[in-house]
Amino acid sequence: MKTLNKYLNITFLTILLSGLFLSSCQEYLDQDPQSVVSEAVYYKNATQFTNASNNFYTRLGFDYDGDQHTQGDAGSDLSNNLSVTPVYGGGLTAIPTTDAIWTKNYSNLRAVNQLIEKAAIYPGNQTEIAVPLATAYFFRAWHHYNLLRRFGGVPIVTKSLDVNSEEVYAKRNSRYEVVSQILKDLDMAIAGLPTASTLGLTGQGKLSITAAQSFKARVLLYEATWDKYVATTTDGDGVTSGVGSAKPADYPSVTSMLTEAKSLSLAVISGTYFYLWDHRSDIVQGGTTDYSHLFYLYNLEDAGSNPKGLTKADNHEFIFQTVYDFTLRQIRKNLSHSHPVGPSRKLMDMYLCTDGLPVQHSAVFQGYSSMISEFTNRDLRLTSFVNIPLQQYWGYGSATTGGGAQYSKTFATAGTGYDYRYIPVLTSPTGGRGVGYMGNKFVTEYKLREDLTESFNYPQIRLAEVMLIYAESTCELGNGSISDADLNLSINKIRARSGVASLTNALIAPFPDMNMLGEIRRERAIELDGEGFRFDDLKRWNIAPQELNKNVCSCYIAGTEYATVLNPKTGTPIYLASGFSNGLTTSEQSVSSYSGIATTKAGALILDPAGNRNFTIKNYLDPIPSDQITLNPNLKQNPIW
């Protein structure tokens, strides 16, 4: 039977999934005793509306695999994780038969739209259901945005469709019509959601006005820059391919979208309830040296998950988050074992030095000659999220790599007899996800957590991103200029907690290859690495081919300690040239369209050669899955596919 997707003809479930929120959030789990309640008897009172809206949160997951074919930013120019097949970042995708992003988001829209429809005929006072209704509007925008990012223009669905609905066979709406609908829905969400302070800890993970404002700022920046840099080049004619370029009469201009993104983000960062995680002074390793306080932001569970005894209540940076719990809802992904977020050579050199300058200009950069020299005097985001060779690191669980952290003990007195030093893997590309550099973002060291049982929350929106939105929209409005005052409101707060000197106009003035927009984009790449933003950013800036179609490299081998050093645990060489068929770079190579990013010199280990990578404008939008076009011939395929 022809349907928009086979998931539209579903029975609406009114019972919340049992594993959604912390035990302190019992109100989320209040529900009627029946396992399934029909639509005819449901939506009769405010509690039922609340329970139905709570179910929307269960569709959020641990989204380090984002809405791409990849995990986090794996396969991008910043990642050494090339295990995804085919590599999305190389443009090596094909038209799929099915696509989970298409089916799941349209499936989820049915329940959202049903709540909105039932609210219109609710016999009680509308104020009683204002929050669940606003929640539904938010999620309708959320699901449409997921589809927009992936496919461009898609059919807008604002009804709870069944197999007989004419919208099932509708054409795709233009991206501009989709954006217009998203913005309208978010205005409705902002009008009805509560403040974050009224939610408190028991409402952790639930939507607030601040979350809706932040999300709208994200959408506005995304679409304003897409409209500015990509424009209509991916729209197609709407007849033979794509959806065309039809814009609603009231569609906002680039300037108005950037202006509102700036205004909304300023309102968020000016608030007092959310603030950046900053524990430089009280989370230390080895008793003296702080290198990892940001690491604990991403694996925070209960007091046993970190040396300071902090809990999720101490995290006020995550504005909107997927909530997990060891008893109720574990993440169940291969995280700590796989170390999914690791850096490429390019990202390693994008991290700043403590004087606020990149490696090619910094007076405090120590070079690459030893395995640890490039980690000296560097951004705490680097030393928090990338293992330093020969540094000791706890494992996790009862026994993995020596077992989890014992904060009351030193590594030497842990009683395991394990050598906790991290030794780089440079024997073959299949030697592990951490070939050359091992990332540890979204990795636990909890003694009571085995792999798959991690239960830290996932940030869907966090304050640092909103600060970056403010800086970027301000700089775009200023035609590449931004004042030091605006930088101090935003990016410099992020840099401060990262142990990096402030970005100022005077700081970069002596360097012709650096400019403010490039530095703001650098900050975004560094700060949000592994959180699923990289591909979307490169596409909306219209620089994806220039950034992605380069050699993906790792450590410098030639002329460094890596070339000759032996593994102190085994006595065998750390690096085996025979294990890497792509060899080393033989000359200096530009790695970015922004000249402020350090070039890669000769002697770097090539993980994926440029010849394997062919990301083009075609890949800015993914293809509509073939089964959907078969079911609905009115869906025209995206251009070039």
Task: Please outline the helices and strands.
Blueprint: H1 46-57, H2 100-120, H3 130-151, H4 175-192, H5 196-199, H6 209-230, H7 254-269, E1 318-322, H8 345-350, H9 380-385, E2 458-462, H10 463-477, H11 484-489, H12 491-497, H13 505-508, H14 516-527, H15 534-540, H16 544-548, E3 552-556, E4 604-608, H17 626-631
Antiparallel strand pairs: 1-2, 3-4
Helix pairs in contact: 1-2, 1-3, 2-3, 3-4, 4-6, 6-7, 6-10, 6-15, 7-10, 10-14
Domain RagB/SusD: 339-641
Domain SusD-like N-terminal: 97-221
Family: Belongs to the SusD family.
Strand order of the largest sheet: 1-2
Q: Low-confidence runs (pLDDT<50, min 5 residues)?
A: 1-37, 65-70
What class would the helix/strand composition place it in? mainly alpha
End-to-end separation in angstroms reads: 26 Å
Q: Class of the domain at 23-264 and 623-631, according to the CATH hierarchy?
A: Mainly Alpha
Helix count, DSSP H or I runs of 4 or more residues: 17
Helical amount among residues, as a percent range?
25-40%
InterPro entries: SusD-like_N (IPR033985), SusD_RagB_dom (IPR012944), TPR-like_helical_dom_sf (IPR011990)
Organism: Arcticibacter svalbardensis MN12-7
Family: Belongs to the SusD family.
Protein name: Putative outer membrane protein
